[in-house]
């Protein structure tokens, strides 16, 4: 009786767990004060940790990811640094000294409050050097390694897998800051090569480091107050040369943060920009639209911002607010159909109540011209998170290849971290690819990996590689998708250090996966779906030596088949056992009666 009760209890718990989409306690335990600022695997255990800002933007802390709940926890020896005199504006993890261990770049301003919108104040850059399990907090807040105007873009200028920065110096000149193995020298500043003087850079900006012309060399996308510039990357000096300019979309008062997405799933990156045709008197957005730049022109994706009740929504924008002081989009394939979807924070007109929504990539129904895709706002996709959210970003909590969401709820006074579990109602396949720097550390110890002891795999958070795949769908069509790895880093862009491609229900092998960086590329063929591929591109210029490790995640369907098979086997064993026992009993009886007969005959 007790056994049955326990069984019922377990079944109910399991059902509830799969139905519940708000998994905040399972993810954060009780600690929801940290505001997500960046993602990266700090302690090299292949689980993506979350870098948060807390204590009113005065402290940065790393929440380490675990396989058991709570999934994100503060470390025993807290990985936390405090900046008592300044205000943290961004956090960018990466290896800034080439020792293969992740460091953390923090930018701050000396302005005291979030409401202070003085944009002339300088940005201070600090590097917190990382050991495998500790973080060296900066001792001198008054001497940042760099002072600049606006936030920097993390990139790799000289292809040595040590992260460098791009931005503008105090004189408003465009500069690259090159980091090296010697922490004491810190960096070299190189002005951007140019033959004519260019516009000042935007603040905030949506600069990006990704390959735009398919030569596997990351290029530079620069945002200025009136236009976008594309600079092509080269192996030799000058590292970047001006290529072309894209004017901002016409009739747009406000330009949000641009994003690069393979909207049509054609194997090329489209520039997607949120805009507002007008600005409300309080500075908020009016006339929201999603624009895509395709073949030399801007196309309005005709997103319907009216909900089912007829209310009109806008991109939420509020000066001096947390996360929503710029319009930021984040992309990822939420429903695993291959087409990248978008997360955005909206608000109804004249209502000061932000809410994040999923914009699903759908086939364009009418009036689309030559662009075949559009976005449809899924008003209930993130429920039960319906009572105010300032931010939503994609994150894979259970390493099952399904993108969940990490959110920040906001009730008008208080911000809190939240977690949403994406429960897909069908068994979709995926492929997850992560490109590491490939740097190694001689002092590396063995750690308990997911399968026994193993060496640490080092150096996540490499900006710039392009990752693409080709596969054949069940209908026999060729599908080609591409995604850049970590093209943006500033202004809480919250890029994941890996890429997940949804494959829909295609159970076939993926024909090929191609990874390209620093003018080199390597293609791997016949990849098993539902596998996680870790690429170690070392040596950088000898692509044939690059390695790929595959971890296969069994899909729900396979697990269910295994369970069913085990149950059937068990049942058969029991039946065989019973039959066997019966037969033996009968044999016994027969033998007994036979012996009786024998005695009888003998007489
Ligand atoms: Ca390092
Ligand atoms: Ca470098
Ligand atoms: Ca390129
Ligand atoms: Ca999708």
TrEMBL record:
Localization annotation: Membrane
Which InterPro entries does the entry mention? Answer: C2_TIP, Integrin_alpha_N, Tip
Q: Does the keyword DNA-binding apply?
A: no
- The UniProt record lists the keyword Transmembrane: yes
How this chain sits in the membrane, per its record, is: Single-pass type I membrane protein
Point out the signal peptide segment.
1-20
- GO CC terms for this protein? plasma membrane
Q: Which residues cross the membrane?
A: 557-581
Whose protein is this, by species?
Dendroctonus ponderosae
Give the family from UniProt: Belongs to the TIP family.
Q: What is this protein called?
A: T-cell immunomodulatory protein TIP C2 domain-containing protein
- What UniProt keywords are attached to this protein's entry? Glycoprotein, Membrane, Signal, Transmembrane, Transmembrane helix
């Amino acid at each position: 009786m007790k056994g049955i009760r326990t069984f019922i209890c377990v079944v109910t718990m399991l059902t509830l767990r799969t139905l519940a989409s708000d998994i905040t306690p399972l993810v954060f335990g009780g600690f929801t004060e940290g505001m997500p600022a960046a993602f990266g695997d700090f302690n090299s255990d292949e689980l993506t940790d979350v870098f948060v800002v807390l204590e009113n933007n005065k402290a940065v802390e790393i929440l380490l990811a675990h396989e058991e709940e709570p999934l994100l926890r503060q470390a025993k020896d807290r990985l936390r640094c405090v900046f008592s005199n300044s205000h943290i504006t961004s956090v960018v993890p990466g290896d800034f000294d080439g020792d293969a261990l992740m460091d953390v770049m923090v930018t701050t301003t000396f302005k005291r409050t979030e409401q202070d919108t003085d944009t002339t104040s300088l940005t201070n850059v600090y590097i917190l050097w990382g050991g495998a399990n500790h973080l060296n907090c900066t001792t001198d807040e008054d001497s940042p390694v760099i002072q600049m105007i606006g936030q920097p873009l993390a990139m790799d200028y000289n292809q040595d897998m040590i992260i460098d920065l791009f931005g503008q110096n105090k004189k408003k000149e465009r500069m690259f800051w090159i980091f090296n193995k010697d922490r004491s020298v810190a960096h070299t500043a190189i002005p951007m090569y140019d033959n004519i003087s260019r516009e000042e850079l935007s603040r905030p900006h949506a600069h990006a480091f990704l390959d735009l012309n398919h030569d596997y060399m990351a290029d530079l996308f620069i945002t200025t107050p009136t236009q976008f510039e594309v600079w092509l990357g080269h192996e030799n000096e000058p590292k970047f040369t001006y290529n072309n300019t894209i004017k901002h979309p016409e009739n747009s008062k406000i330009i949000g943060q641009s994003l690069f997405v393979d909207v049509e799933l054609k194997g090329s990156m489209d520039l997607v920009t949120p805009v507002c045709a007008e600005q409300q008197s309080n500075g908020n957005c009016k006339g929201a639209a999603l624009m895509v730049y395709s073949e030399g022109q801007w196309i309005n994706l005709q997103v319907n911002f009216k909900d089912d009740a007829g209310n009109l929504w806008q991109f939420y924008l509020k000066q001096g607010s947390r996360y929503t002081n710029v319009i930021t989009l984040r992309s990822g394939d939420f429903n695993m159909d291959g087409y990248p979807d978008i997360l955005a924070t909206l608000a109804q007109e004249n209502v000061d109540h932000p809410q994040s929504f999923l914009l699903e990539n759908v086939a364009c129904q009418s009036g689309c011209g030559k662009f075949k895709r559009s976005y449809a706002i899924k008003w209930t996709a993130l429920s039960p998170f319906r009572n105010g959210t300032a931010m939503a970003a994609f994150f894979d909590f259970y390493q099952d290849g399904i993108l969940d969401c990490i959110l920040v709820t906001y009730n008008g006074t208080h911000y809190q971290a939240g977690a949403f579990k994406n429960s897909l109602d069908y068994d979709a396949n995926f492929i997850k690819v992560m490109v590491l720097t490939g740097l190694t550390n001689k002092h590396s110890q063995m750690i308990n990996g997911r399968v026994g002891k193993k060496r640490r795999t080092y150096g996540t958070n490499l900006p710039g590689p392009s990752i693409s795949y080709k596969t054949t769908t069940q209908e026999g069509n060729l599908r080609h998708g591409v995604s850049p790895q970590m093209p943006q880093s500033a202004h809480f862009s919250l890029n994941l250090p890996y890429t997940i491609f949804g494959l829909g229900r295609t159970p076939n092998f993926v024909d090929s996966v191609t990874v390209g960086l620093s003018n080199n590329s390597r293609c791997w063929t016949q990849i098993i779906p539902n596998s996680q591929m870790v690429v170690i591109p070392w040596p950088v210029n000898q692509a044939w030596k690059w390695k790929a490790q595959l971890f296969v995640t069994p899909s729900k369907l396979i697990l269910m088949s295994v369970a069913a098979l085990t149950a059937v086997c068990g049942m058969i064993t029991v039946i065989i056992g019973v039959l066997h026992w019966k037969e033996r009993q009968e044999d016994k009886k027969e033998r007994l009666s036979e012996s009786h007969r024998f005695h009888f005959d003998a007489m």
